[in-house]
Specification:
Elements: H1 22-32, E1 38-39, H2 54-62, H3 77-89, E2 100-103, H4 105-117, E3 123-128, H5 132-140, E4 144-149, H6 160-166, E5 171-177, H7 189-202, E6 205-209, E7 233-239, E8 252-258, H8 264-276, H9 282-285, H10 288-293, H11 298-302, H12 307-321, E9 325-326, E10 336-341, H13 351-362, E11 364-365, E12 367-368, E13 379-383, H14 388-425
Parallel strand pairs: 1-11, 3-4, 3-5, 5-6, 6-7
Antiparallel strand pairs: 2-8, 7-8, 9-10, 10-13, 12-13
Helix pairs in contact: 1-13, 4-5, 4-8, 12-14, 13-14
Amino acid sequence: MSIPVIRASQSLNNVRYEIRGKLARRAHEMERLGYEIISLNIGNPGAFGFRTPETMRLAMIENLASAEGYCHQKGIFPAREAVVMQQQNRGVREVTAEDVFIGNGVSELIDLCLRGLLNDGDEVLVPSPDYPLWSAAVTLNGGRAVYYACRPENGFVPDPAEMAALVTPRTRAIVLINPNNPTGAVYPRETLLAIARLAEQHKLVVFSDEIYDEMTYDGAESIPMATLVHDTLCCTLSGLSKIWRACGYRVGWAVFSGRREGAGEYLQAIELLSSLRLCANVPGQWAVQTAIGGYQSIKDLVRPGGRLHASRAAIIAGVARSKYLQLTPAPQGAMYSFIGVRPDVVPHFDDQSFAMDLLENRHVLVAPGSSFNVPYRTHFRITHLPLPDMLDEVFRRLEDQLDAHVQASQGAVAGSAAPLTLKAVR
């Protein structure tokens, strides 16, 4: 009797999320065997001892009695109103609670926003490198991700002129991730202004992923895109996961601003999709007002002497000590470094195979750069969340693995050359 094969949907053929893919599965297998793995592939603050502010936990607990039923599909009013106040404090005018959607993290809202917008074959401009959920959500909703390059030699900042050349009649939206994951780039005002004018010229929806908006270093300024986009629709996405270290609460928000005339049908579609999933996690929503209105402890973490600032400094120093690595420029925001391997010192480097060797031999898990939809395989991403001492150990193991990689490459070259030399002697 033959066993029927249950195949996956073809809609998943071009969907990748390697941050939790083969490497992460192998790391879990090794942990079950008793190995201690240093996991740097995911920005999960709770895994490294960061706590959600106590006031947020108390706000959620005190309102549990009000969180047992469904809420409005857009979210509870106090949470949405708090988001409005935050936007107004940042210079975003003419938004109300009706313009705010609360979701089960930004991840769900990305999917809802694209599902409500795209028809088969529609195009969305997406940064390369990107946070791969954006590419996946575009693909799953019938669209095509068209990548605009954010090159290392340009500080991972996009070129608006190159972006303009990618716009076609099928282009519906532009995605920005600022501060950027995975590179840590923080885009300058003139770049954002040029992208805003491009979107307005072509009436494109702007999706601005600003989940790391208050996580910047050394005076870098995170500029809300909604303050620059006026003559087309702008959607700002953020949430509790990173700035407030509350990943498990699964609370994010999408705020629509700019020109909403003519967008009524689209916004109604998002409300319909929100209704189909009934509502977002209600207990976590009760922490939003306290989070936004309370003391912003993230400022203590990113200033000199703060834990995230110190860990970032340890990464910069670790790269500077290395014979093989480069980090140009240093990350100005978010909680990641997108580290390059010098091709002149390590030829024929492959990020995927190196990441697996690093895991198997040195018990360090990183995210290969090609996981973030770039055409090169010379980078990998690590998170800033570990303490500096742990990061020092990570760089020791990285250097050991790169030493072994280079020695093996040299041995392979010598071995392949040896028969030719002997044959010539004969």
